[in-house]
Amino acid sequence: MAAKRICVFPGDGVGPEVVREAVAVLRTLSEVAGRRMFETEEALLGGASYDVHAVPMTPRALKLAKEADAVLLGAVGGPKWDVLPFAVRPERALLGIRKELGLFANLRPAVVFAPLIDASPLRRELVEGIDLMVVRELTGGIYFGEPRGVRMIDGVETGINTEIYTRPEIERVARVAFELARKRSRKVTSVDKANVLEATELWRKVVAEVGAKEYPDVVLSHMLVDNCAMQLIRWPRQFDVIVTTNLFGDILTDEASMITGSIGMLPSASLGGKVGLYEPIHGSAPDIAGKGVANPLATILSVAMMLKYSFDMTAEAAWIEEAVERVLADGYRTVDIYREGEGKKVGTTEMGDRVRDAVRKLSQKR
Ligand code: IPM
Ligand code: MG
């Protein structure tokens, strides 16, 4: 089997540090398989690209991504580039690549690892056994809607963004959620603001129709986003698959990540096009960048998602997930999940090393 080609965008801030550990996990898999399973090629994206090329994404970087079998991304952005004109800010590269690759479905699982239950700010009885999947629409909605911009209207400075969803956009992401639900506990919660926003009134209607027509075996319920934000804290176990719009998904997944203890733990997969993109849901964390303390587990778990969703390598994906669980059970903690007096505080590289050791051990047991 030919080696899978992975386009790697380390990005900005802690991105390069966490991506390095995840790429090293891929090398470990090749090593235990005794053959080269992956070929990686790196390119700049975001602020790192701007600093060199004066644009956050070059045509070459985009081409590399399009021609790869999968894309691994760290994070983009940072205060250094916040002063730039909107069009060349690092975030434009991320949104641009999602759009260019047609990645309309963003899967963000929030799973609580048993050894981390006490790292959650919520009480143990609330978070035990949490395993939910947010399907966030990723190439539409207010993130991309036109008209947009800041301009003078009747002599008044005015900022405009447009929430817009078409029926086909809603149908396709709803199907992704229903299909996932069929492999889980056949339960979908669609989250909207149908009582105020017409675009999401349509959202609710279309999701309901797709559900009734194509997935009568899946139990569908609808929830308003403000209520959902509250329910995620009050009783998170009521959720299994959540499907929602781009903006609501952005917000709710940051919230969901804290249920699991740290945003440094949550991976994501962006699917829908030919090439899948995998990235941690956390940002570039400029405050801790370069210090070697960032948690690499979200990026390492993103690689596990890549193996599962892009390459159908379920055994290898399971080793990685299990390796992470073991390392946590053995007490290793990066600073974001460390609690005074419990476990061993380690940096980014050591956490990566521990995971790779565990992967090696697990692979020998097969
Ligand atoms: C995310 C991030 C991005 C988003 C930013 C960096 C543009 O917050 O992936 O959740 O809003 O989609
Ligand atoms: Mg976000």
Provide key terms for this protein.
single chain, 366 residues, alpha/beta, Isopropylmalate Dehydrogenase, 2 domains, 10-stranded mixed β-sheet, two-stranded antiparallel sheet, 12 helices, 19% strand, globular, binds 3-isopropylmalic acid, binds magnesium ion
Question: Can you walk me through this structure?
Answer:
This protein is an alpha/beta fold. It has two domains: 199 residues, 3-Layer(aba) Sandwich (Isopropylmalate Dehydrogenase), CATH 3.40.718.10; 135 residues, Isopropylmalate Dehydrogenase (3-Layer(aba) Sandwich). Helix content is 42%, strand content 19%. It has twelve helices and 14 strands. A ten-stranded mixed β-sheet has the order 2-1-3-12-11-4-5-10-8-9, with helices on both faces. Strands 6-7 form a two-stranded antiparallel sheet. It has a two-stranded parallel ribbon with strand order 13-14. The radius of gyration is 20 Å and the shape is globular. The relative contact order is 0.16. The model has no long low-confidence stretch (mean pLDDT 97). Bound molecules: 3-isopropylmalic acid (IPM) and magnesium ion. The site of magnesium ion has 2 residues, from helix 9.
